[in-house]
Structure prediction request, 66 residues.
Amino acid sequence: MRGGVSDGNFTAALGRPTLDGLGCGGHGAHAEDEHILISSIANRAALMINMLASADFQQRALGPES
Prediction:
């Protein structure tokens, strides 16, 4: 899948697995009333910590040469 305006396009172009859309819940993306839901911060932080600490994720993200 290609397209969009995410910075993930840069890593995807290098052939690296790329995840997008892992931010906090909220509404009004890129609008004057954009906001996040405070109640979603802890769950998203835990998701990111566990994902980044995962050996499988590190192997897929960094590749076999690391």
Helices lie at 8-13, 41-53, 55-62. The mean pLDDT is 84. Strands lie at 26-27, 35-36. The longest strand covers residues 26-27.
